[in-house]
UniProtKB/TrEMBL annotation:
<comment type="subunit">
    <text>Homodimer.</text>
</comment>
<dbReference type="GO" id="GO:0008710">
    <property type="term" value="F:8-amino-7-oxononanoate synthase activity"/>
</dbReference>
<dbReference type="InterPro" id="IPR004723">
    <property type="entry name" value="AONS_Archaea/Proteobacteria"/>
</dbReference>
<dbReference type="Pfam" id="PF00155">
    <property type="entry name" value="Aminotran_1_2"/>
</dbReference>
<dbReference type="GO" id="GO:0009102">
    <property type="term" value="P:biotin biosynthetic process"/>
</dbReference>
<dbReference type="InterPro" id="IPR004839">
    <property type="entry name" value="Aminotransferase_I/II_large"/>
</dbReference>
<keyword id="KW-0808">Transferase</keyword>
<protein>
    <recommendedName>
        <fullName>8-amino-7-oxononanoate synthase</fullName>
        <ecNumber>2.3.1.47</ecNumber>
    </recommendedName>
</protein>
<feature type="modified residue" description="N6-(pyridoxal phosphate)lysine">
    <location>
        <position position="236"/>
    </location>
</feature>
<dbReference type="InterPro" id="IPR015424">
    <property type="entry name" value="PyrdxlP-dep_Trfase"/>
</dbReference>
<dbReference type="InterPro" id="IPR015421">
    <property type="entry name" value="PyrdxlP-dep_Trfase_major"/>
</dbReference>
<dbReference type="GO" id="GO:0030170">
    <property type="term" value="F:pyridoxal phosphate binding"/>
</dbReference>
<feature type="domain" description="Aminotransferase class I/classII large">
    <location>
        <begin position="43"/>
        <end position="373"/>
    </location>
</feature>
<keyword id="KW-0093">Biotin biosynthesis</keyword>
<keyword id="KW-0012">Acyltransferase</keyword>
<keyword id="KW-0663">Pyridoxal phosphate</keyword>
<dbReference type="InterPro" id="IPR015422">
    <property type="entry name" value="PyrdxlP-dep_Trfase_small"/>
</dbReference>
Length: 384
């Protein structure tokens, strides 16, 4: 490595350490429902996005294994070459029917799906309006892409409407459920603004799909209007990974021709697509998973309401605001001592001075897990 690279990297790493922002990766040894084992010690996992508890479901494992037996392990190619199989096709049809679109395109991740849409659809001279707190994949695509980007105030439709002048081709993008705050965007009002100003609308439903609405339709349950582009990801409520872009025929055809993340990337395996189809059916029929999440959420709010640190949300994402990064790390470590895994989320993932524990609930949790979490939070807050 040249000295200049070395110096730059060392300086950046030291700065992260000095500001209590240094990240490390932990490998888990095993997972069983709400329990996760890391470095030989067992914890209750309150950091996963496996909201419905599907990631370790036996039904899903069997669907995956059966499909591996039939189709093998890998897809072997990108979708336009020979990577697209009948399980991929059935998954797409199932998602279209469920969510009310004519087409779905599958991607390896939500990050690439978001970037593919923004990079491909927008051109120089277009206007991209994004909620200030949108996910890094969207904001980064906006910074790197050719369109003029403006970030409107979080969930503020008045601020959004200031930018909607109808004189440019405009795309408005928001998350449905905000990943770090757990609050819900005013989807109905936003889609109404888009309709009135003839702007395209794009909803990233990563944290809404499977969780919101009676049969888990996520953002689609929040409004009569349909966004032009709906991105759903499979790494959260579906319990797997990957993503889909749902849209009309014209956009789907356009992305198929020009979206580089789609064209030049190996398709997910057929077995993965089969398991996702099974997960989509389970999400729609196993209502008890959402009901349980709601009950656990109520239980947690009731138990810790006196501490005033937990933000009350209608989703399984429960931010516990700590302010300084060091406070979040100390609380996270204190909880680990008591057998609870909650990751400290710090800038730049969240704005400055808003470090937090991002506590997430799952249908895999037991009531006793919530009791343990509440008790440990109270104990740790007293001790710190
Ligand atoms: C709102 C949102 N969009 C997109 C993504 C990216 O999805 P994936 O993990 O499938 O790349 C995430 C992931 O954390 C997310 O929270």
């Amino acid at each position: 490595m040249t000295q200049a690279f070395k110096t730059r990297i060392e300086a950046a790493l030291n700065a992260r350490k000095d500001q209590a922002l240094f990240r490390t990766v932990h490998a888990f040894d095993s997972v069983k429902q709400s329990q996760i084992s890391i470095d030989g010690r067992s914890y209750i996992n309150f950091s996963s996005n496996d909201y419905l508890g599907l990631a370790s479901s036996d039904e899903l494992k069997i669907a995956y294994q059966d499909s591996v037996t039939k189709y093998g392990i890998g897809s072997g190619a990108s979708p336009l070459v020979t990577g697209h199989s009948t399980p991929h096709r059935s998954l797409e049809s199932q998602l279209c029917e469920w969510l009310g679109y004519s087409r779905a395109l599958l991607f390896g991740s939500g990050f690439s799906a978001n970037q593919a849409v923004l990079f491909t659809l927008l051109e120089k001279g277009d206007l991209l309006l994004q909620d200030r707190l949108n996910h890094a994949s969207l904001i980064e695509a906006g910074h790197l892409g050719p369109a003029n980007m403006r970030r409107f105030k979080h969930n503020d439709m008045e601020d959004l409407s200031r930018y909607l002048n109808g004189s440019q081709n405009t795309l408005v993008a928001t998350e449905s459920v905000f990943s770090m705050d757990g609050d819900i965007a005013p989807i109905d009002a936003l889609l109404e603004h888009c309709r009135a100003s003839q702007s395209w609308s794009m909803i990233d439903d990563a944290h809404g799909i499977g969780v919101l609405g009676e049969d888990g339709r996520g953002a689609r349950s929040l409004s009569e209007h349909r966004p032009d582009i709906l991105v759903i990801t499979f790494g959260k409520a579906f319990g797997l990974n990957g993503a889909a872009v749902l849209c009309g025929d014209d956009i789907a055809d356009y992305l198929t021709q020009f979206a580089r993340h789609y064209i030049y990337s190996t398709a997910m395996s057929p077995a993965h697509a089969s398991a996702l189809s099974k997960a989509a059916s389970m999400i729609q029929t196993q209502h008890w998973r959402r009901e349980k999440l709601f009950d656990l959420s109520e239980q947690l709010h009731n138990k810790v309401s006196d501490l005033h640190c937990l933000v009350e949300t209608k989703t399984p994402i429960k931010p516990w605001l700590c302010g300084e990064s060091n406070n979040a790390i100390d609380l996270s470590n204190a909880l680990k001592e008591q057998g609870i895994w909650t990751t400290a989320i710090r800038p730049p993932t969240v704005p400055k001075n808003s470090a937090r524990l991002r506590i997430t609930l799952s249908a895999a949790h037991h009531e006793s897990d919530i009791d343990t979490l509440s008790y440990s939070l109270m104990r740790s807050m007293e001790a710190l």
